[in-house]
Amino acid sequence: MASLWEYANPRKFMDTSAWLLPWATGIAALCLVTGLVWGFFFTPDDFRQGSTVKIIFIHVPAAIMAINAWLMMLVASLIWVIRRHHVSALAAKAAAPVGMVFTMIALFTGAVWGQPMWGTWWEWDPRLTSFLILFLFYLGYMALWEAIDNPDSAADLTSVLCLVGSVFAVISRYALLFWNQGLHQGTTVSNAGVGVEEGVAPTFLYPLMISLTGFAFLFLALVLYRTRTEIRARRLKALIAQERMG
Amino acid sequence: MIGLLRRDLALAIRAGGGFGLSLAFFLIFTTLVPFGIGPDTTVLSDIAPGILWLGALLACLLSLDRIFQLDWEDGTLDLIATSPVPLEGLASMKALAHWITTGLPLVAAAPALGLLLNLPGPAYPWLIASLALGTPALSAIGTFGAALTVGIKRGGLLLSLLVLPLYIPTLLFGALCVSRAATGQDATTPLVMLAGITAGVLAGLPFAAAAALRVNLR
Amino acid sequence: MPDLGSYATEVLSAYAGTLILLAAIVVASVWKARQVRARLDEAETRRGRV
């Protein structure tokens, strides 16, 4: 049985990630600390929302990354299906728990923010419900990886699930809008640059952007780190299988 | 392919084939609802559309792991895979067989169960229409899920976890259609949406299911 | 600590919860990495390093 280790791709990945990882971690830590400290200590209260506006610095980046994580998994799954790069499949597997945690953060901080603002911990509005469904997709994806023994089959089946799930996620998004017009805020972040009154004011926007960068690099660092572990785990599995046969 | 369909139908109908169990579940589930929620008929008629749709959905869900299981275990699936019948065709026929033996009876039984839950009069035709249009999607999505998990021992729970989120759009529009009809509003838009989703699912998912089967049969 | 007013519990629990969840995924990742690394080194040694 050919050893995964002998493929050029994983070796190149291990080499590249070895020097990339410390940088990603460093930038992540720097941006997270800067963004969150700035946001928490050095921004004013909002006219309508009081000090709860400070939650924006974790809620929005977590929500954005929760979706980006799934998109990355989708791309990685496509690369696996088309090009059969093992690293790609393992990267998707590695990213799932991170995306799931970001989704949990978005849901939790959203609920905690929503309670004083809307008077309720939960509302079945399209955006919140989409995140709940996204959470379920992450769970299913991770569960399928765990349930299948053969690594290549697991990669194939979870890729198919990711593709089909993504289509349904888009369908669900529109279905939910039809089902219940939401009370969640519309897009305000992109409007900020235009200076629209509904947009996020610069006082909040800068720490928010820094925090978002922090979350993005944290995602990168965690995925790099976890993919390295997955590659090693595959190698371990191959060695154990060889031992059993030999 | 018709031969495959006939075979599945025959297997389902003979004793031990599981035919009728979904119907029984639908009935039991609907009966359970008032015990959980209370016998107030106003409340029941408000939630009847959703409960009927949920009951039909769960009844479909419970019979999904049988779709490929028996053929997988005795090697028939391998045989069919080597035959000239494309796996996409197999998946479609399996979904169709599931619908005929599970979905269709549910559509027929639903009005009777609607009476139990005090479903308002105007909603009945829409109940039948939405279930008739929606249950094929449930079967097709379920067949896809079954194809994904066919090789997994005791994969039934995982199958549910994977399939239920995919059921959400169909459930959403189906129940919305019936509840709008129940309150006298126009219910055509959700019905059309529902039909669109079913059409898309029927066109696309057999390919995904076939891909999954190919992986599992390697 | 800035004056969080009446929303102190909400804001603080949001931040605390987030930090806990982030710590959890980092710790879990490190723990798994260490475990796999250790077992891989063991297996490599058994195999005899080439």
Descriptive account of the structure:
The complex is a heterotrimer of chains A (246), B (218) and C (50). By secondary structure, chain A is mostly helical. Chain A is built from 6 helices and no strands. Chain A has one domain (7-245). The radius of gyration of chain A is 20 Å and the shape is globular. The termini of chain A are close together. The model of chain A is unreliable at 1-8 and 187-198 (pLDDT under 50). Chain B has one domain (2-216). In chain B, 82% of the residues lie in helices and 0% in strands. Chain B is built from 9 helices and no strands. Chain C contains 1 helix and no strands. Chain C is rod-shaped. Chains A and B meet through α4 and α5 of A and α7, α8 and α9 of B.
Quick recap:
Chain A is mainly alpha-helical.
Identify the notable features of this structure and list them briefly.
A: disordered N terminus, C: mainly alpha, 1 helix
Strand content of chain B: under 5%
Largest interface: A-C, 37 and 32 residues
Instruction: Report the major sheet of chain B.
Output: none
Shape of chain B: elongated
Task: Compute the average pLDDT of chain C.
Answer: 90
Structural class per helix/strand content of chain C?
mainly alpha
- The end-to-end distance of chain B, rounded to whole angstroms, is 22 Å
Number of helices of chain B: 9
Strand content of chain C: under 5%
The total tally of domains of chain B equals 1
Order of helix and strand elements from N to C terminus of chain B: HHHHHHHHH
Alpha-beta classification of chain B: mainly alpha
Mean pLDDT of chain B: 92
